[in-house]
Specification:
Elements (H helix, E strand, L loop, with lengths): L9 H7 L12 E2 L2 H8 L9 E5 L5 H8 L4 E6 L5 H10 L4 E5 L15 E6 L2 H12 L10 E7 H8 L9 H9 E9 L4 E2 L6 E8 L9 H13 L5 H4 L7 H8 L12 H12 L2
Parallel strand pairs: 2-3, 2-5, 3-4, 5-6
Antiparallel strand pairs: 1-8, 6-9, 7-9
Helix pairs in contact: 2-3, 8-11, 10-11
Bound molecules: S-adenosylmethionine.
S-adenosylmethionine (SAM) binds next to strand 1, helix 3 and strand 3.
């Protein structure tokens, strides 16, 4: 029996339901319930929140979230083989689990969630990054969620929290840090997962700020940042040439040297440039 609930250990769950890991679904499972409880404790305001968990698999993190007191957990899982195991968890925690079968890139779970809402996930790299970008770029701010607690491969986690002047600094850092506090809260070696992936992982915690750190139109900022980092080795006057014929003047007005490279420019300066681009 596991230390955190009365359900069988995860290895047994996997054997019972024949959940051999599928590479095509990015399945690297966390089977240590002490570890999943530790990740769950990183989730903000857990006991008073509904948690949206994407990709629960056999339910290690789901069980961690519930054992640590999440008010409710709504899970979205694409692999139908996992559903019986998830239903067993729902039965062990009556009224606290809602299971949705589907692709998280397509289903909309909002109707099943009551604020405050936190999001937690251990997802395959490509799906995780795509969902993160969607969660960070809603039409309105603040978003429907208060915090994100997400497992990423270490290199992606480093890009989310990167500071200007570092190689990892780019579009993802700016998207994340413009409207959130972002930090790495845990590091995990490949051996923490079954089967072990090739690279290390890290849990990133992002909490949504009530308003963006600096004023800027989200669309303009996104265009400026995308153009600047698409050609990150070029000087800004060249990388941004396509955005405006008088880009050098606009850069100077903003206090950015036209000879600087995107990597050097702070989020505050990118926001000032976005405002200058919108000024007639
Ligand atoms: N959360 C579990 C854990 O920590 O052990 C499983 C993690 S495993 C890395 C990723 C999970 O996401 C798998 O269960 C996989 O089936 C699921 N998944 C992959 N793509 C998905 C998608 N597009 N929508 C929903 N779930 C997905």
């Amino acid at each position: 029996m596991s230390a955190i609930d009365t359900l069988p250990p995860l290895r047994e769950v996997i054997a019972t339901h024949q959940l051999s890991a599928r590479k095509s679904l990015g399945q690297n499972f966390l089977l240590d319930l002490n570890l999943t409880a530790k990740i769950a404790r990183q989730v903000a305001r857990l006991t008073e929140s509904d948690v949206l968990e994407i990709g629960p698999g056999p339910g290690g993190l789901t069980r961690g979230l519930l054992a640590e007191g999440a008010r409710r957990v709504v899970v979205v899982e694409k692999d139908s083989r996992c559903l019986p195991a998830l239903q067993d968890i729902a039965s062990a925690y009556p009224g606290r689990v809602h299971v949705i079968e589907g692709d998280a890139l397509e289903v909309g779970p909002l109707a099943h969630l009551t604020p405050p809402i936190q999001i937690a996930a251990n997802l395959p790299y490509n799906v995780g990054t795509e969902l993160l970008v969607r969660w960070l770029t809603p039409p309105e701010w603040p978003p429907f969620w208060q915090s994100l607690t997400l497992m990423f491969q270490r290199e992606v986690a480093d890009r989310i929290v990167a500071q200007p002047g570092s190689k990892a600094y780019g579009r993802l850092a700016i998207l994340a840090q413009w409207r959130c506090d972002a930090r790495i809260v845990m590091s995990l070696p490949p051996g923490a997962f079954t089967p072990p992936p090739k690279v290390s992982s890290a849990v990133v915690h992002l909490s949504a700020l009530p308003a963006p750190r600096f004023e800027a139109d989200a669309g303009t900022l996104s265009r400026v940042v995308a153009a600047a980092f698409n050609q990150r080795r070029k000087m800004l006057r060249a990388a941004l040439k396509g955005l405006s014929p008088d880009i050098e003047d606009r850069l100077r007005t903003t206090g950015i040297a036209p000879t600087e490279r995107a990597e050097q420019v702070s989020i505050e300066a990118f926001c000032a440039l976005a405002r200058a681009m919108d000024a007639t």
